[in-house]
Task: structure prediction
Amino acid sequence: MRKMRGKHNRILILAALLTMGLLFSGCTFGLSEMRAGIVTPQVVTNAIAGEYEFVKVTSLEEGKFVEASNFQSFYADFRQGFARVGLEKVENPDYVAKRVRTFDYFLEKYRVNPDRFKIAEETLEVVSITSDTGSFYEIFRLDEENIALVKGSNFIQLKRKEKTSTDGDTQEYGNDVITGEEFLTDIVEEPRAGVLIGLRGERTGVAKDSSYRTLWITNDGEIQEVYEIKNILFPRKEFWSLSVVSSVQNGLKKEHLVIASLSSLSKGEVPVATAAFPGRYVDLDFVANNYVGISTTDGPYTTHEKLEKSYTISVDGYQTYTPANIMDVAGTAGLKAFRNSLEQKLAKDGGISVDEVNMEDFYQSLTLNRESGRWLMGALAKTRDEEVYVPVAMRPPVNLITYDGMTITWDRIKDKVPQALDAFNAPGNSFILIRTPKYLMMYRITGVNTISDEPLQMIEIKETEQIIMAEWARGDFVRRWTEVAQAQGQKIIFVQNLR
Result:
């Protein structure tokens, strides 16, 4: 079985006294127990007080170009009485610093390798800014004069101005600093949006039968609707259905997938089982347009976390259950990210050399997990005596996950809903779904990093259900998707509408 995972008296920064370990323990597949390690506290002798001007911007998404001219007027200003980042400002902020392990922190929070931003230091000072309204921003102190922060999907680097005014507490800024379309993208709203949420339920009965369902959740700015569909309904050029079924082979029950378009199913064209069976039990880890992640075992079913093998297969060739290589999914960039993440993980843990790892199996063990409102890539490194889960510092490419954007930070989500486990941000900022143990809570997005005080509605789900899919539609596509959901499922009547 695999091993998974390890006050503002002045603006002088307070050193954090908290120490956390990076945990990979037990058999839980994913990073639910992973937290960026905070290293031995150090006394901080330099403050971030002052004004900072724009230097450089880099997208967190691999290969995505960002027009730097849109950020030329972007700045930040940190004082005892206020903190300002771009157009956003909070009064009477608190500044608290901690020193973190750079690679672990960027991997967990942003799924990127800090090498992309030319950050070579093993540890990094992070200053958290909060106010009475909640979390504001985290500031990375690159050195005494340079800082960086993450805004939306951009990593922005700034440099301290040579001179700063002394009347910062009363200073007002003119409209001349509000330029560039980039600053407004976070608050542009498309009223109509909908999402297909795939859920894997707890296995039931002596036979441990699998259970899957799909929720179609919509909001057009005024009305919210929810439909429930049996099994997994997902979009490609047309809509497809995915289910896990069982067959008896040589006196032993084995499970396999049935994936087919709705049009073929309506004609009675149900795919037949082939000689290839992935295992006695098969669980879905994630579902995307072109790929499906599965976990399997030939032994008895105890819990999902104890399934022996996890990998990704192509929807089009799913009946052979051939693991997809990272090169197939993400090309050479994926190959490099896998190798770099493996080297970082093994160097940190010690005891295992890269030369001991079966690299072919490693490159074919790609899977995705949900963590703090994001899909996180990972893989399993195998040696003769040990198996190690490796989080991969790379965002899933668009041919794997079409949309995975977040304009509301995870810190702000936790401030609003402390029991939040996951979140899904609609493209166009129509709404955000926040998953708690027992509910999917829909909130309206009301501004930059801001959501409504009360949820629009709460949709009941089971604590044991895991979200394995989030496929989005917006604009005119919402109507068509709703028609399909109406035909394939039924409207949920126990939705709590709180408007």
